[in-house]
Amino acid sequence: MSWIMNLLHAAEIEAHMIGEGALAGAELAGQFAMVSGDARERFVAVLGDPAGQRALFASLRAFKPNLAIERTLVTSYPCEGTVIVTRAQDVREVLDRQGDFAVVYEPKMRKITGGANFFLGMQDGDDYQRDTSVMRMAAARTDVADIIVPLARAEAQRIVAASNGTIDLPAALTTVVPALMVQQYFGIDTASLADLTEWATAMFWYLFVDLAGDPAIEARALDGAAKCLVAIDAAIAKTEQNPEGPVTVLRRAIKLRDAGTAGLQGTGIRDNMIGLVIGAIPTISKACVQALDGLLDRPDALAEAQVAAAQGNEAAVGRALFEALRFNPVNPVIYRRATRDCVIAEGTLRECAIKQDAMVLASNLSAMFDPAAVADADDFRTDRPWDIYMLWGYGLHRCFGDAINQAIIPALMTPLLAGRPLARAEGDAGHPDKMTPFPQHFTVAF
Q: Per the confidence metrics, is the pTM higher than 0.85?
């Protein structure tokens, strides 16, 4: 009888999804009606808001979970046509099938380094496995608890204690702590915190966020890359002169290189280090900002997080922050290019044929709200298993620093949450600015 129960459960989920999709469609229509401007301006405004994105994906999950269109939405990388994938099972399928759905970052990554690729731009293979393996030896997993978390916790405590009742989160805290990590733990202490933040943000924007191929964004990124490479080369030379100093990723990488480890010869260290720098600062800062923004919209959840913080319970603080981030993750989709004609969700009602060179937008945001995979998906719950979260990707190309992110974000946010009740600053200052994809200002008050 178990197959009957499974069938009934599946039918119940589908019925729930259709109802959810209809409600989401009505919500989208209401949002469009409330926004002024022409159709395109309304579309941009509604879908620029996380609630609008969630409503759109809910509608697609119910009525067209795998949507293939001829229009090319991503123009910064060569592709033809677009497929939007919204169900959790299908999102994971796309990201698991490395041979059929490839990462596309290689051309831009080679411009960043001046020639070489970085493993985030590589397909699975010998080079990818070699480079990720050697960098995991240089950035040991135990460093998270031994070095990174104590650094983040101490610096955040110092910054919060020095504030005078208000704090501009990105400018004073959430870019500063990860930039200090780049200086002190990565070992790139030959550049200022401000420069590292500016360069990393410009390069990340160019590589992963600029889907239209804006020449101005490219120019800023390549200028920042050139300066960052100079700083990394200087840090390498400085570390070579002092090989027995404090533990850093760079010092370990140099020792591995000198021991003959493949992948670190020539410009290998420099190319891998700039890849780490790119991902370290803007993503952590944006995640912190958007998570706190979400908690401030939920007073009960914020109060619980503040109690946990006052008790020094970083694990509980993290659960609240990551659940808030689920509603507004750093990126709502992960994109891959089809390497050949293929099919996803084969044998199901969701089956979708995908043409070679189509850009596949696998929505991690949608997957985290799929009721077929996430219990009470629309509710705010801090008891969810970690594997339902797709905050930093999934599968082979999950963010290299996912373990760092999972630990450093609660460590640097706990001192802020541990004090008096938090509130938004008055006016626009109390909301994350949207001048760039990475909030530069967001002021909260004690």
A: yes
Residue tagged 């497929």 (tokens): 83
Q: What is the DSSP string of 386-423?
A: GGG--BTB-GGGS-TTHHHHHHHHHHHHHHHHTSSPPE
Band (164; pLDDT cuts 50, 70, 90): confident
Q: Which two tokens stand for residue 187?
A: 């070992």
| Strands across the sheet containing 166-168 | 166-168, 443-445, 423-424
Neighbours of 22 (CB within 10 A): 14
Are 443 and 429 a contacting pair, CB within 8 Å? yes
176 to 98, 151, 227, 331, 432: CA distances (angstroms): 35, 12, 19, 21, 17
Mean pLDDT of 376-381: 96
Look at the block and give the residue holding tokens 């967001």.
442
Indicate the DSSP class of residue 244. Answer: T
Q: Which of 414, 413, 369 is nearest to 389 (CA)?
A: 369
pLDDT at residue 69 greater than cutoff 80: yes
Token couple for 408: 């450093």
What pLDDT score does 42 carry?
59
Exposure string for 252-280, b = 16+ CB within 10 A, e = fewer = bbbbbbeeebebbeebbbbbbbbbbbbbb
Is the predicted pLDDT of residue 285 greater than 90, yes or no? yes
CB neighbours (10 Å) of residue 245? 11
Q: So what's the pLDDT on residue 361? A: 96
Any idea where the domains of the chain sit in the sequence?
1-63, 106-334+367-445
Q: Average pLDDT, stretch 99-106?
A: 93
pLDDT at 108 over 90: yes
Q: So what's the pLDDT on residue 23?
A: 56
CB 432 within 8 A of CB 163: no
Question: What integer is the mean pLDDT of 391-406?
Answer: 84
Cα–Cα distance between 301 and 382 in angstroms, integer?
9
Beta-bridged to residue 359, according to DSSP, are: 82, 337
Average model confidence (pLDDT) across the chain: 89
CATH code: domain 106-334+367-445 is: 1.10.630.10
Estimate the share of the chain in helix, then strand, then coil, as percent rounded to the nearest 5: 60, 10, 35
Q: Residue 444: which H helix or E strand, with range?
A: strand 443-445
State how far the Cα of 135 lies from the Cα of 132, in Å rounded to an integer.
Answer: 5
Q: How far apart are CA 86 and CA 383, in angstroms?
A: 24
